């Protein structure tokens, strides 16, 4: 087991750390949270950073963790840690101190950076190179702690930006942003090479993210135009092994799925095909729980005035997580993660 730091994007307070845990579990690895701080998650896990950095939507980077300590003890903790042994000899290093939001307003981060670099240079004769370092040492200041790490893998945040809706061939106002769609795919513990289902797929925002991590995306929608859009978007993203079906998610028969993540219609823009929203949830949850393989996960959104925990009663689903999200001024919704727990 190794200790890993995940420097989180801070776009949401609870989804990014849960996404990390979901992604690690989706890779079949163990994960124990050691500390959760603002924009930082430290875990003990048998996962290697290079095995998951490409599947995270709300993380900046993953690093090897060498301690979490009070800022007054920082230099001493670095001196006593394995960090120095981890650095190969005669290489170029960089040291950066990152203050999260407005924590530690009185700390001079430049001065602290120099103190950390001096402590390291005292022991080994490294060259400091901020542009092309072989090893990047990061000190994150968050809440009342400093977190010491060597960065291992950076998430390609630009690639996520490039997948934003306006960049896709088919557009619709109901479509989801790629970082949240990716997080939902991870919350659903979608295995690479597994069968993934989105039964309210719209123009494919979630299907694209599931396809890009290597799963086989299957989408359904009641509206044929949406499916035409999904096809264009999936092709444009280079995804070929997908399947799209036209129909009402409550009536379709789906193949057993390894993961389901979905975003049913919720307001004026996304059509419900004339049905009451609550009826859609009541009628679709039994279908989805039946479709899900045992011990696999369903990640589903619902407007905050629908209590999905109550709606799911009677289905073989256990609620694992619930996250709150504000979509816009007049719409708040929850993101639920259920596990199929019994027959
Ligand atoms: C919020 S949108 C999904 C957006 C999608 N996640 C994306 O990122 O593009 C909801 C979709 O559900 C579809 N829909 C509404 N009622 C349905 C039903 N009973 N069965 C299947 N699809 C339905 C709508 O046509 C709409 O495309």
Automatic annotation (TrEMBL):
CDD domains noted in UniProt: AdoMet_MTases, THUMP_AdoMetMT
E.C. number: 2.1.1.213
Subcellular location: Cytoplasm
SUPFAM superfamilies, alphabetized: S-adenosyl-L-methionine-dependent methyltransferases, THUMP domain-like
GO molecular function: tRNA (guanine(10)-N2)-dimethyltransferase activity; tRNA binding
Assigned keywords, A-Z: Cytoplasm, Methyltransferase, RNA-binding, S-adenosyl-L-methionine, Transferase, tRNA processing, tRNA-binding
Class of enzymatic activity (EC top level): transferase
Substrates-to-products reaction catalysed: guanosine(10) in tRNA + 2 S-adenosyl-L-methionine = N(2)-dimethylguanosine(10) in tRNA + 2 S-adenosyl-L-homocysteine + 2 H(+)
Quaternary context: Monomer.
Organism: candidate division MSBL1 archaeon SCGC-AAA382C18
Protein purpose: Catalyzes the adenosylmethionine-dependent methylation of the exocyclic amino group (N(2)) of guanosine at position 10 of various tRNAs. Acts via a two-step process that leads to the formation of either N(2)-monomethyl (m(2)G) or N(2)-dimethylguanosine (m(2)(2)G).
One of the protein's GO biological processes: tRNA methylation
UniProt record similarity statement: Belongs to the methyltransferase superfamily. Trm-G10 family.
Protein name as annotated: tRNA (guanine(10)-N(2))-dimethyltransferase
Record-linked InterPro entries: DNA_methylase_N6_adenine_CS (IPR002052), RlmKL-like_Mtase (IPR000241), SAM-dependent_MTases_sf (IPR029063), THUMP_dom (IPR004114)
Main location: cytoplasm
All copies of domain THUMP, residue ranges: 46-152
Any one cellular-component term (Gene Ontology): cytoplasm
């Amino acid at each position: 087991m190794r200790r890993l730091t995940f420097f989180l994007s801070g776009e949401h307070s609870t989804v990014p750390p849960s996404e990390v845990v979901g992604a690690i579990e989706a890779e079949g690895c163990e994960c124990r949270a050691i500390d959760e701080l603002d924009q930082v998650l430290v875990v003990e896990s048998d996962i290697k950073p290079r095995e998951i950095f490409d599947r995270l939507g709300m993380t900046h980077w993953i690093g090897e963790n060498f301690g979490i300590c009070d800022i007054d003890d920082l230099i001493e903790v670095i001196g006593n840690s394995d960090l120095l042994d981890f650095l190969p000899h005669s290489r170029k290093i960089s040291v950066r101190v990152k203050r999260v939001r407005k924590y530690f307003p009185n700390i001079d981060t430049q001065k602290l950076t120099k103190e950390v670099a001096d402590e390291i240079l005292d022991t080994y004769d490294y060259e400091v190179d901020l542009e092309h370092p072989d090893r990047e040492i990061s000190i994150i200041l968050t809440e009342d702690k400093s977190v010491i790490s060597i960065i291992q893998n950076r998430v390609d945040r630009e690639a996520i930006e490039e997948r934003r809706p306006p960049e896709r061939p088919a557009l619709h106002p109901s479509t989801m942003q790629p970082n949240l769609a990716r997080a939902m795919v991870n919350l659903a513990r979608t295995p690479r090479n597994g069968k993934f289902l989105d039964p309210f797929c719209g123009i494919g925002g979630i299907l694209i993210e599931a396809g890009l991590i290597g799963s086989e995306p299957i989408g359904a929608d009641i509206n044929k135009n949406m499916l035409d859009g999904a096809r264009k978007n999936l092709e444009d993203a280079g995804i070929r092994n997908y399947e799209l079906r036209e129909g009402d998610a409550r009536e379709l028969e789906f193949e057993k799925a390894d993961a389901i993540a979905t975003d049913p219609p919720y307001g004026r823009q996304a059509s419900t095909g004339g049905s009451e929203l609550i009826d859609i949830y009541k009628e679709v949850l039994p279908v989805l729980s039946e479709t899900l393989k045992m011990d696999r996960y369903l990640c589903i959104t619902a407007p905050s005035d629908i209590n999905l925990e109550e709606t799911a009663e009677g289905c073989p689903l256990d609620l694992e997580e619930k996250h709150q999200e504000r979509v816009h001024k007049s719409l708040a919704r929850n993101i639920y993660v259920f596990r199929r727990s019994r027959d």
